[in-house]
Amino acid sequence: MPIRFDVMTLFPGMFDGFLTESLLAKGIAKNLIEVHRWDLRDWTLDKHAKVDDRPYGGGAGMVIGCQPVFDCVEAVRRLGGSGELIVLSPQGERLTQRTVEELATRERLMLLCGRYEGFDERVYEGLRPRLVSIGDFVCNGGEVPAMVVIDAVARLVPGVLGDERSAREDSFSRPGWMEYPQYTRPPVFRGMQVPPVLLGGDHGAIERWRAEQARRRSQQDEKGNDHDSPADGQG
User: Catalytic one among 4, 108, 115, 155?
Assistant: First the structure.
């Protein structure tokens, strides 16, 4: 059974190119992945297809109202059975490789994308979504973060990459692990040479070299970056 993504957004057209290129398009063609897009405006009761309004109490920007969001989420839920509802939000938990691996075990993920000043707070109170952030920075909306979630999860679906070793050997594929350096032809470029061990054909020596390089990179990364720190902003 393919993993199913339901993306609820005000801008479904943003996903056109993303879904028709590279490995993701191949995964969809192989029926390993399903991505369904839903326009929140299709559920508004406003005759002008308006989904947002000014915030109570004043302030800059507009807020997406409850009615179209609730109606959309509830309608989409009925179409495909149970699935985890995720809002891409600055207040969310940090998306790490471990989170991606967890999400990849789901049969269905529902991704709700905000815009403007976000959703009426009652969307969170009533629908109880899981909040996820891709980093300590702010995007114009949840669409690009939703693409990141889809891309990261989809590559873990068996058959999407073709060679499953690629996903297992990626950076962050296990806690604290950074991938070893990679090289291809030519052996020398502008005076920079491929490490001789990779050219010698001794696979045992190559594996030991790669393991050592990965260990060094991982140690350097631990000193300079904390990939599991809580996120304050949207990415």
Answer: 155
54 is catalytic: no
- Whether the CB-CB separation of 180 and 211 falls below 8 Å is answered with yes
Q: How many domains does the chain have?
A: 2
Q: Does the annotation mark 16 as catalytic?
A: no
User: pLDDT tens-digit profile of 138-165?
Assistant: 899 999 999 999 999 999 999 999 766 5
Judgement on whether residues 57 and 173 belong to the same structural domain of the protein: no
Query: Is 90 a catalytic site residue?
Result: yes
Question: Could you tell me the pTM of the whole model?
Answer: 0.82
Domain range spanning residue 49?
3-154
78 assigned to active site: no
Candidate list 117, 151, 179, 221, residue with the active-site label: 117
> Is 24 in the same domain as 78?
yes
Whether the CB-CB separation of 52 and 46 falls below 8 Å is answered with: no
Helix (H) or strand (E) holding 53: strand 52-53
180 and 146 fall within a common domain: no
